[in-house]
Write a structure and sequence with these properties.
With 803 residues, the chain is an alpha/beta fold. Helix content is 35%, strand content 21%. It contains 26 helices and 35 strands. It binds flavin-adenine dinucleotide (FAD). One of its GO terms (cellular component) is cytoplasm.
Amino acid sequence: MASNKSYIIVGAGVFGVSTAFHLIKKYPNADITLVDRDAFDQDTRVAASWDWNKVVRADYDDIVYCKMAIESQDMFKTDNLWKPYFYQTGIYWMCRSDYAQDVVNNYKKLGRTADLAAVPIDEARKLYGGLFEDADYTGVKEVLVNKSSGWATAGECLIGITREALRLGVKYKQAEVASLQFDNGRVTGIKTGDGETLTAAHTLLCTGAYTPKLLEYCAQASGNNDLCAGERIVAGGITTGMTKLDEESYRRFASMPVGVQGYTAEDGPFIGSLPPTRDRELKWWGEKIFKNDTEVLPGRIVSAPPAKPDYGQWEVSERLKEDIQHANHVFYGKKSAHWKLEKHRICWDAFTTSSDFIISPHTAAKGLYVATCGNFHGWKFFPVLGKYIISMLEGTLEPELSEKWGWDRERPDPKYFADWPRHDMKDIWQGSVTAYSQAAEAENEDVNGVCLLLAAIWELVIVQRASAHIDKARVFLKLDNLQPSGSFKSRGVGNYVLQRAAERITSSATPNSTHFYAASGGNAGIACVHAARMLGYPATVVVPKSAKPVMIAKIWAMGVSKVIQHGSTIAEAQEYILNTLLPADPTGVFVPPFDHQDIWDGNATVVQEIASQLGDKPDVVVCSVGGGGLLNGIMQELDDKKWNNDVQVLAMETKGADSLRQSLDAGHIITLPRITSQATSLGVVRVAEKTYEYAQRPNVTSVVLSDEEAAKGCCLLAEHERMMVELTVGVNVPVCFDGFLQRLLASKKTITKDSKVVLVVCGGNDISLDMLMAWRMAMVGSETVQESTTSMTARVGATGVTA
Ligand SMILES: Cc1cc2nc3c(=O)[nH]c(=O)nc-3n(C[C@H](O)[C@H](O)[C@H](O)COP(=O)(O)OP(=O)(O)OC[C@H]3O[C@@H](n4cnc5c(N)ncnc54)[C@H](O)[C@@H]3O)c2cc1C
């Protein structure tokens, strides 16, 4: 059993490091481990606490924070450990409410004298050499000028204090915490993503904006849903931006105070500007504070920083950069109009509806404590936070503070809290106009623009597989499963979205208000959302009621605005968009899944890439057919290259989703009454007319295999090529074995050991380890995977070849 003086602190931001530092000073022999996904001294970190600089002020209308901030500032001003990081520049706060008076009164109530005053606007404008004379004073009542406030070099300070805590005996572990350890409901430590466990008597979560997501995982692992944060904590993001001042501007602004534009709770959050750092970089934060609602587990949606490593904190959309332009303008007007705002970052913090911290035992599990929720104002308390957190751990926190910072407490309506995240990241993630126009300019607005933006950023690999189990020909895999959306749909659907966005940019009066709508059970919807989000637009996907929860979760994970379940087929979902959603949304644009020239143009790039990667034409291309968008793109490009006489194309379907094959048999396009194949991505009841037309060409062979054979193909790819693919791809694999390909092509082409056969691994998201294992289990006992491929019974297509 862990010693009573053992502590695991997850999160090395100011809450965690301050706690570790105060604990080791109080209990030099205690066993204290700080765990964070990032090294404490790496160049940049995801922590809100890591930054170039942060405001250190005691200008609070809430007397509790005013008192605590003065206590903290005193440390910054007098303690040798903290002094090197603090700059007492003063603060200049344009107040649109009674804030200035409230702060002045709080100082009085606390018996604290400081050089602070509520100054009339005309007088204030002249201060600091008139730096703020051109600011926007609309609605401003008076300006709070507090010469005792200032700022600190936040990142340097965080590293310095962490180093000091380590010197005193704290341990630091760099690891991603995946869950907690439980013993009879009590939390006894943590479990890392690598499966390592650490135990301690106290486990403290100082995990900032990541807290709700982590608690969802812990709830799932333990079955204790009361662990979830629910509405207690919301992750919110904000944009910061910097400019490097020229020589002359630096001379003027070097000794500026911190600037704040304060608004009322109804108008929005206060925005700020920090004095230049040693590198002459002057910083702003913007006014848009946003959530990022994400399905972190099936059916569990919480706001969380985006899941990319490092959450893409440096990828800031044009719209959010405008937020910083706006901040620049309302502080300095024409003085700063020539400054280039080059460095931008999105930073996430944890919010409560009252803007109060949570420093509390977790009420759902003994041994677990939470200390976080800086609400965009927690950094300045760094020197003293740990003292309060230790009081909480030891049950000696003043009752007023226990109540204020409790896990379970009254939560006021967030409308009284100006900084509450009021936007959703998806809705304001608009980066399209510039990104698109630059790309289009560079690429002459041709279809390669799609690749630049949407596909080619993933270097697609074409791999020669010469393993013994593949007979005769050289087989290449065109890995479109590595496309950003997980399937080839990024090519066609991506191009369609790009072209519509381009039209809106050039033709619409309001280019930014565009909303894309797709009907899909999975891959096309995911590709649509990915393309729309890449270009900065929202997207809604309507899925049939039969859509799998796992696919819906993947659409959510891509950042969709809304998923609507409607109808029993994709066709019905599509009708709902066309007849109900689009008429109600003037900004709406419908994205067809396969039957459009722009989609074929996008898909044609697969042959362009194959040609350049092989340095030659292939002999055979094997591709799956759902609605036919991929086949159309391939055939179109073969025509363009005048290769249709030389390249054979196998059009693969599964039985029960074989709308092409049945149309060919019928001599006209038919509509399947329903889809009975498990390969739902191929489950289109009626192919495009163009597909039917192409499929009758002599170089096309239609092949239909069973779901079972497609599943065997998936298992073979997993086993031999270490690749997880859905049935849509698995159906292509059997042609590589046992002379099957030659039997299919018969006299159309002789396959030799030099023939180049390309399987388009078109990807797909409908696959999991569980599915593969279930298919594998079904095969074990009856026949081996290898043997089974010899007994394939294909119905072979238009030209009457039989296997
Ligand atoms: C743009 C911006 C400007 C701000 N300006 C100011 C200011 O001027 N003055 C001020 O006082 N305050 C300011 N704040 C607020 C302040 O920065 C935060 O309130 C404070 O830093 C939060 O500290 P924290 O320790 O709770 O979280 P963080 O600093 O975010 O630390 C959380 C840590 O937990 C780690 N972590 C999370 N989950 C896991 C996991 N599963 N496994 C391992 N590690 C994990 C993270 O890597 C991170 O290091 C600002 C905040 C932002 C975003």
